[in-house]
Amino acid sequence: MTSALTITAGIGLLFVMSPHILEKLKNLLYYTLTHLRPEEIETNDIITLFAPYAKVTGELMLPFLLGLAAATALLVRLQVGALFSTEKIKPKIDKLTPSSIMQGLKKMFNPFEPRNLIEMTKSFLKVGIVGYVGFSTVMGRKDEILGLLGVDIPTAFAVLASILTQMIINIIVAMLIIGFIDRKYQEYEYNKSIKMTKQEIKDEWKNMEGDPVIKSKIKSAQMQFMRQKMMNAVPTADVVVANPTHFSVALKYDKDIAPAPVVVAKGVDYMAFKIREIAKANGVPIVENKPLARSLYKLVKVDQVIPAELYVAVAEILAFVYGKNGPPKMRINNPNLNPNSNIRR
After folding, report:
1. CB 317 within 8 A of CB 239
2. Reported pTM
3. CA-CA distances (angstroms) from residue 100 to 107, 192, 271?
4. What would the pLDDT profile of 151-177 be if each residue is shown by its tens digit?
């Protein structure tokens, strides 16, 4: 893309500067034909002889080269942004060693390198397309070229200039199209190169979140610690509310610590069995209430106070437990729970 735009800018500068260039060349030709006398030429005065030509060449080339350099810098700036670095022009002695030179040449001219193969194929395609465009332009006006035989010189030059101008315009358009396609391909290749592979994503996620194996061990240790903490808290509980087989929740009430009973341990299936087993061994009352046990297990976390909607049911259970002379069975009248459930010591 940069080459196509630079050539376009160069042709544009030549078109803009062509009147000035032609005027300078005309004056130089007039000077040559009117002032150059072969009999006066001496080898010792060669600098004086070529000085006017060097001066005119400088006057023609310097504005063109400066304008082309400024246009190229602007085009590159528009494409890549405000990037400037002197790193590439810094001399590096290690790159001048024979091994580094051979390695660079081998990498550059290795046809089996995927990137080199792609770049070489692209280069052949570009040259082929541009060459075909220029050739087809000339062949399309072949009859005009053949018709120049015998015509006057100004007419012949005008026709040739028209053909040359059309060929240059067609080549520039073809190069711009190729450059646009090549730029899109380069963007695709760049975006593809900076993308992470699945393994890299896994490794980065592992580094960010931690090794899954270690995390699993930490989680297992935390769960083991929580289970041990709950088992140690069961003997201090006031009552264990059971399902009776699937759920078990141990409650403790200390009005100096919390305004309502606190869940100190809970479990399902095997953990529920262990909670009941420890409670029996330590003489902690076990009360059967299926809906309350489910509600406590699902709604309340360990070391958390029970919610207000369960106050009535839990208060009745605690009243039953504290009333040692109470009946062995007691029906709980709580509209939030199943009215047919019974409390059993």
Report:
1. yes
2. 0.46
3. 10, 28, 69
4. 888 888 899 989 998 998 999 899 889
- Residues 240, 279 contacting (CB under 8 angstroms): yes
Give tens-digit pLDDT for 258-296: 778 888 888 888 888 888 888 888 888 888 888 888 888
Ranges of beta strands (E only) in 132-246 are 239-242
Let me know: does 242 contact 267? Beta carbons within 8 Å.
Answer: no
pLDDT score for 111 = 61
Please name which of 116, 114, 118, 125 lies closest in space to residue 178, comparing C-alpha atoms. 125
* CA-closest candidate to residue 284, choices 207, 325, 232: 232
Neighbours of 197 (CB within 10 A): 8
Q: At 251, give phi and psi (nearest 5°).
A: -115, 145
The answer to whether 331 touches 342, Cβ cutoff 8 Å, is yes
Q: Which of 319, 301, 302 is nearest to 311 (CA)?
A: 319
**Any idea how long the chain is?**
345
Contacts of 309 (CB under 8 A, 6+ apart): 336
- C-alpha 324, offset from chain centre: 71
CA distance 8 to 5: 5
Q: Which residue has the higher pLDDT, 141 or 109?
A: 141
Element (H, E) at 342: strand 342-344
Contacts of residue 322, defined as CB under 8 A and 6 or more positions apart, other chains included, come to: none
Angle, CA 12 vertex, CA 9 and CA 15 arms, to 5°: 155
- Eight-state DSSP code of residue 87: G
Beta strands 239-242 and 286-288: pairing type?
A: parallel
Q: What are phi and psi of 239, to 5 degrees?
A: -160, 150
Report how many helices (DSSP H) and strands (DSSP E) the chain contains, helices first. Answer: 11, 7
**Burial of residue 341, with CB atoms counted within 10 A of its CB: 0-12 exposed, 13-18 middle, 19 or more buried:** middle
- Nearest partner of 51 among 68, 67, 35, judged by Cα: 35
Q: How would residue 80 be classed by pLDDT, with cut points 50, 70 and 90?
A: confident
Residue 330 clears pLDDT 60, i.e. is over it = no
